[in-house]
Structure formats: C-alpha cells, structure tokens
Amino acid sequence: MEKDRHKRKFLNFILNPISKIDSPQILEFGVSERGMSTSIFLDLCKKNNGKLLSVDTNNNSQKFEDLNWQFINTRDDNFEFIEKFIDKKLDVIYLDTIHKADHVEKIIYNYYDKLKVGGFFFVDDTSWIPYSKKNRKDHFYMEVNNHETFDRIIEIFNSNSDLFDLEFSFVGTGIAKIHKMSESSLIKKKKLKSR
Predict the structure, then answer these.
(1) Closest C-alpha to 157, from 105, 117, 92, 107
(2) In what order do the strands lie in the sheet with 90-95?
(3) Which residues neighbour 23 within 8 Å (Cβ) at sequence distance 6 or greater?
(4) pLDDT band at residue 1, thresholds of 50, 70 and 90?
(5) Is there a contact between 128 and 136 (Cβ–Cβ < 8 Å)?
(6) What angle do CA 157, 163, 167 make, to 5 degrees?
(7) How many CB atoms lie within 10 A of CB 114?
C-alpha cells in the first residue's frame, strides 16, 4: 500500500476513474515542485494517447519534456488567454492552485462548461481535519480556508445536484470529485439553510 497520503489519494481517487479514458484531454492548474500530479497525468496521456495542458505562475516549462505536454506560465484565472489553448472539450480538470473558497468557485464556474459530459473536475485540498487544533498539520488559516472551500463546493452542489455527482475523499488534505452528468451550465450557488 502506498504510504504517501497525497500520492495514495491521487492514485485511488483520481487515477482510477480516469485511467480508461481514450485520448484524455486534461487541464491541470498547479504544477508542484515535486511534479507528482503532472507526472502521473503525463504517464496516462502517453499510455492513452492524450494531451495534458498545465498552468502555473511558477515557470515550470522545463520540468518535463514530453510531446503530450504543454505548459502555460500564467494564473489560472487568466481565462481568455488560457481558453486559446483549449481546442477540445476536456475529460479532466484538476485544480491545485489557490485554495480560497472564492477563487475555487470562480474557477469551477468558469471552466465547468469546458468539461465533457462524463468528465471529472477535481478540487484538491478540501479537508480541514489535518489542520485542526493539535492535529498533524495544526494550522489555523488552512483549517478555516479548507473548511470554507468544502462548504462552498457543497453550496454549488446544492444548486446543481441534477447536473453533477459529487464525492469527497478525506485522505491526506482531502479532495472533491465533480462528475459532470449534463450538458447544462451551472446555476448560481445558494446557501444551505442550516437548522
């Protein structure tokens, strides 16, 4: 069993459902110093004749040399610029850049229509549990931030539950999986009314 929580989360929750996609078109926001997600996505693209488009503000253009890979050195919310590079509907969108709720919402609403029906939108770092007080990553800001992001994704789902399925994994720092089920565009989120 994979001991690295982040890698285990990635392999089980992301790679398993997308591994059989033929000619996958993948848009990745965030290329880490380690480059783990990029490397795994690239292996899948090489195996299944796909294309990976990675976006980051850090210039990681030399990190990988691969014909299946294109790197764009910009912010993930530079929408008009990035859209010039998207020539087909996407099978996978992976968001691992700014983990603030407002930013995550903005990215989901902007790129969701670029996703094929049956495609997946993954949002990394949605669990606050490891950051809670006296837990292994004890960090006030990250605890609040990830909890707000989790709640925001639930609010988006609350208004759009007929359009996509939603699952969460709490392995490591958590991840959300949105599985697009309809061609319809997302409608504006609404807050859940708590008792």
Answers:
(1) 105
(2) 69-73, 51-56, 25-29, 90-95, 115-124, 175-180, 164-169
(3) 48, 49, 50, 51
(4) low
(5) no
(6) 50
(7) 17
* 8 A C-beta contact, residue 156 and residue 108: yes
| pLDDT exceeds cutoff 70 at 123 | yes
Q: 112 is written with which tokens?
A: 């969701």
User: What letters, b where the CB count within 10 A reaches 16 and e where it falls short, cover 71-83?
Assistant: bbeebbbeeeebe
Give the integer Cα–Cα distance in Å for 39 and 41.
6
3-class DSSP state of 170: coil
Please enumerate in sequence order all residues whose Cβ is within 8 A of that of 62, keeping only pairs 6 or more positions apart, or say none. Answer: none
End-to-end CA distance of the chain: 41
The rounded radius of gyration (Å) of the Cα atoms in the chain is: 16
Mean pLDDT, range 7-24, rounded to an integer: 94
Give the pLDDT score at 13.
Answer: 95
80, 126 Cβ separation under 8 angstroms? no
- Contact call for residues 28 and 70 (beta carbons, < 8 A): no
